[in-house]
Every structure is written in C-alpha cells, then in structure tokens.
Amino acid sequence: MNIETQLIHGGIDGDPHTGAVTVPLYLTSTYKQDGIGNHRGYEYSRTGNPTREAVEVLIAELEGGVAGFGFASGMAATTAVMMLFKAHDKILLSSNVYGGTFRVLDKVFKNFKLKYELVDTSNLELVASKITEDVKAIFIETPTNPLMHITDIDGISKLAKKHGLLTIVDNTFMTPYLQQPIMLGADIVLHSATKYLGGHSDLIAGLAVVNNKELAERLHFIQNATGGVLSPFDSWLLIRGIKTLAVRMDRHIENTGKLIDFLRQNKAITRIYYPGINNHKDNKIHNLQAAKGGAMISFVLDNAYNPDKFLQSLKLITLAESLGGIESLISHPATMTHAAIPPEIRAKLGIVDNLIRLSVGIENINDLISDIKHALSIAKEV
Ligand SMILES: Cc1ncc(COP(=O)(O)O)c(C=O)c1O
C-alpha cells in the first residue's frame, strides 16, 4: 500500500462491529470484565483504549515499526523514552535539538543522574569520539530547527549498532510521509504529533514508535506505569488529522518552494535556511534520507529592516509558537524558542536577532507573498 493510502486506511480501518468507516471514540475509563481474569482485551484506559490503540497501530505502521504509543504531548513521549535509561547512563544529543528536549534532560533527568552531552551529530567522527562506556543512546533531530542542520540517520544508526547503543530520532518536522528513520536503522522514533500529524493546531499529542518487541514491552510498561497517555478524544482528532497528511504536506511544500523563490529575489532577505538549499553535504544527505525538504524555513532580514515591525505588520501570517498547522505561523527564535540561550551563544549558533522562522501553511501562496511584501514595506527603516 502506498503511504497516501496507508494514511487513510492503515492501522485499524473503521469499526468491524458496526461498519462505521471511522474509528469510534471510546470515551470510557474502564471496561466490564466477564469473570475473574476474563476481560475482552481492555481493563482500564490508561493501560489501553481502543481509540488510542487505533492511532498507536497506525503510527507504528506508517513508521515501519513494531509498536506505537500515544502520549499526552511530544514532551511526554520524549520523557517516557528517557525513562528507558537509568542513573549514570549517558545520552548523546544533537546540539541543535528542540529546546524542550534539552530542558527535560538538563533540568529534570539530571536530578536522577541521567547524563547527556550535546554533540554536533552532523559530524559522525565527532560523535564516534564521544562514545564511552556510559553512553547508551544517540538522540537526533534532522533537520534541526531553526537552522536546519542535517544528521545522517543511516550513519548514526550504524555507529550506534556497532557500540550497542539505541538510536532515537525526533521525526516531528519530516513526518513518516517524508522520512522513515526506522527504515534507515533507527530504534525509536518520536513525534510531537501536535505539529504536522495533527495538522490543525487544535491538539497537543506525542507519539513514539519502536522497532522491536523488547523495547515495545518496556515502553508500554513505562506508559502504563507513569500514565502520560493520550486521551481518547485527542487520539480521535489525531487520526482525523493523519488521514489528510499527504495532501496537506504536498501543499505545504508547494507553497514553501514558491515562497523561497520570492524570498531569494528579495533584497530584504540576506540568508535562507531550508534543507535543499543549505550546503552541498547537507543537501546530499537530506535528499538520500527524506523525500522532500518539508515546509519549515528560516530567513535573516537585512539590517535595514526592523524584525519586530515586520512581525507586527503581518496581517495573515500569525506570530505564534508552534508549527505544522494549516495556517502559516511565524516566530522570532531569539526571543521565543531560544530565549533561554545567552545572546553570545545564540549569535555563535547563528540564531541572530533578525532571524525569522516560518511554518508555511496551506493558504493561497499569493496571499502569503502579499502579506510578507506589505510587512517588509513597513519594516524598512532606512
Ligand atoms: C521537534 C520537536 N520535538 C518535540 C516537541 C515537543 O512537543 P509538544 O509540544 O507536543 O510537547 C516539539 C515542540 O515544539 C518539537 O518542535
């Protein structure tokens, strides 16, 4: 089955009992048991719920894994995966990883003596040099955000396997429609399903997929023991969102291409970050492991333009955190997603004050371009 069809008919397709073409919403906390130790597959909804199970089976199939798990947020999914490790274990982490992932390791798991080290995972030799006895996993995100650094998933997975480590990939930005890390050798895939999978900025959800039964049993135990599960209603919304992922993504990407053409010709923009137009080495690796470049772009405004005025003057594109919804969202990494990083480190990383991140929506591209043109005309200071 092709992925476009799998998104609609994969996993548990409809309801075998009634013929309903959509998975029913099972709003129940518990289930009648027919006798001692005799239940019908469900006992309590933290442990298992048919609507959540439908999205869990679907994401496992889409990512080519053995089992999927639904969590109340992307961070709850990441947290559950971190709980696979124990005190004094160490995780190597992409240096540009999502800030919340860094924060949970730095401020929460550190208290439990789980160690981490930030590494430029685009440099395989550097990663290899960091593997010591205590390292148990390599956690990567590719492309990263907002600077779109690329990590070779196949290369990292091979290196990890050689040393008996797990490879964990946050696949939020690409989704299984564009990139399937388990097929490239990864052990665990994570999603903030809040983003493209949900697709409508109306839910918070996280998903994890594992590539073997042993990890599946351990992660299910953690999911049930710690309880950060995805609610039946959000599971149902998420299934609904996933069904249109392919058409949304195609339109997101088409708009992104047209917007990049516009930005490239505009003197107000001095640099654009997007997989596919980054440096040659990154392009080559990204094109090998992902179908397309996605729909997240970052760009730097020329100093003659005031970034705050630009953002305030947009009428259609919304200044907001988050990404991956049908509506275009824009953000200012230096004061929003990366505000916690000291300015000098930010500057070193390339997160300058006039860097803008845009999650390109599926509106009519001419309206998006007009909005940006108008805002640029107001933001010009000299
Ligand atoms: C790449 C990435 N991973 C994980 C998360 C966390 O997901 P959530 O906000 O659903 O907890 C985010 C949120 O922005 C993200 O961008």
The CATH architecture designation of the largest domain is: 3-Layer(aba) Sandwich
Q: What is the 3D form?
A: globular
Total domain units = 2
Number of helices: 14
Rg from alpha-carbon coordinates: 21 Å
CATH overall fold name of the largest domain: Aspartate Aminotransferase, domain 2
- By oligomeric state, this entry counts as single chain
Largest sheet: 7 strands, mixed
Total number of beta strands: 12
The CATH first-level class of the largest domain comes to: Alpha Beta
* Residues in helices, as a percent range: 25-40%
Mean pLDDT: 96
Distance between the termini: 56 Å
Assign the structural class, choosing from mainly alpha, mainly beta, alpha/beta, alpha+beta, or little secondary structure. alpha/beta
Fourth-tier CATH superfamily name of the largest domain: Type I PLP-dependent aspartate aminotransferase-like (Major domain)
Beta-strand residue fraction? 15-25%
Which blocks of ≥5 consecutive residues have pLDDT under 50? none
Widest sheet, order of strands: 1-7-6-5-4-2-3
